[in-house]
Design brief:
Layout (H helix, E strand, L loop, with lengths): L1 H27 L3 H19 L2 H10 L4 H21 L5 H28 L17 H29 L4 H33 L5 H57 L13 H19 L12 H18 L16 H18 L2
InterPro entries: DUF6545, MAB_1171c-like
Protein name: DUF6545 domain-containing protein
Pfam family, one: DUF6545
């Protein structure tokens, strides 16, 4: 029951993560690292898809008994190999590409080993669960030794690389990598515990059924931590963009009185309206139009405008807008009005909003 719930949640989260990764590549382009991350998420997503009961039965019926198990662990191996490339600590694309080539060899060996050992396993055992009795078959035991051995190797390599990244990471990225590293470490330990169980039961050295339960618990905990770690940047990015849009919508609403005043006086500064713009584009457009209009109105503003407070500036702008509407554009030196107070759109709009608020209060 618990495993089924975790697998379902994993499938949902991996599917969301895959869609997010594809969107990121569409927006920003790709390189080896983004491509490897996308391959990893895609492989892990497909692994959980093929583990479904209906899908597994269909695959086995159209190929051979045990094909689903080979495909499941093969996809996990591909996903882990791609993760090794993602987290490989190297600042150059050449070094990362070289590591990808190196990782291809153990991956191919593992995939061939999974296929061969499954074919060596009796048909009636191929779909059975790991137990003290099933692992006494050499083919069955070797299959899980290869699968668990490669996963333990891959997870360990990822943890080693992430520890190097943690020395430089800050903020939400450090949190994400810490949780992700913990999840991968638990998965590696779970795989090693399963190896110990399989070896001990296969050669009859000891009986420790508790190891199998411990491996399952460690794997479930590792999957949960891994999912949280890999989803955290996506959730953080989504939350940050939502907060940013909310701030921009509020700023756009507060800027409207000033924008309305100056664009009614100087309507030619209003840009053509296209399709429904985003909150960022709409605010940026209003700032550009407002500043353009303020430049046109600047000859009507006295020199003391720059030293006046926001309330006085609002009254001066109201008077300048009336004069511009009555008299039209006059020859004179134009100057920058209400200069920005910092970098970015929010620094640009801040002084405009203060005057806009005074226009509302003075009504």
């Amino acid at each position: 029951m618990v495993v089924g719930i975790v697998n379902t949640l994993a499938l949902i989260l991996f599917t969301c993560a895959l869609c997010w990764r594809l969107d990121q590549i569409r927006r920003r382009g790709g390189g080896l690292q983004p491509l490897a991350m996308t391959i990893s998420i895609a492989a892990l997503t497909l692994a959980f898809v093929v583990s479904g009961e209906g899908v597994a039965a269909a695959i086995d019926s159209h190929s051979f008994t045990g094909a689903t198990r080979v495909l499941f662990y093969g996809l996990l191996a591909v996903g882990v190999a791609a993760l090794i490339v993602v987290f490989f600590f190297n600042s150059t694309a050449t070094g990362r590409a070289r590591r990808a080539g190196v990782e291809a060899l153990p991956l191919i060996v593992a995939l061939i080993g999974l296929q061969v050992t499954m074919l060596l396993t009796p048909v009636d055992l191929r779909t059975q669960q790991v137990s003290e009795w099933t692992v006494r078959n050499v083919g069955f035991a070797l299959f899980f030794l290869i699968a668990s051995g490669y996963l333990a190797y891959g997870f360990t390599e990822c943890v080693r690389s992430i520890r190097k990244f943690l020395t430089m990471a800050e903020g939400y990225l450090r949190t994400s990598l810490t949780v992700l590293s913990a999840g991968l470490a638990l998965l590696a330990i779970g795989a090693l515990v399963q190896i110990a169980f399989v070896l001990g039961s296969m050669i009859g050295a000891f009986r420790a059924p508790a190891l199998l339960g411990a491996s399952t618990v460690l794997s479930i905990a590792g999957v949960v931590f891994f999912l949280v770690g890999i989803s955290y940047p996506m959730a953080h990015s989504r939350w940050h963009s939502m907060r940013l849009r909310r701030r921009y919508r509020r700023a756009d609403h507060e800027l409207f009185p000033l924008w309305s005043l100056v664009t009614e006086a100087v309507p030619e500064v209003v840009l053509p309206r296209g399709s429904r713009p985003s909150a960022t584009v709409r605010l940026h457009r209003r700032v550009v139009e407002t500043r353009d209009a303020l430049t046109q109105l600047s000859p009507y503003l006295p020199d003391r405008f720059d030293d006046a407070d926001s309330a006085q500036r609002a009254e001066m702008l109201r008077a300048a807008a009336r004069r511009y509407s009555d008299e039209g554009q006059v020859s004179g030196t134009v100057r920058e009005i209400l200069p920005d107070e910092g970098r970015g759109l929010e620094g640009d709009v801040a002084p405009l909003i203060r005057v806009s608020r005074q226009l509302v209060r003075a009504r």
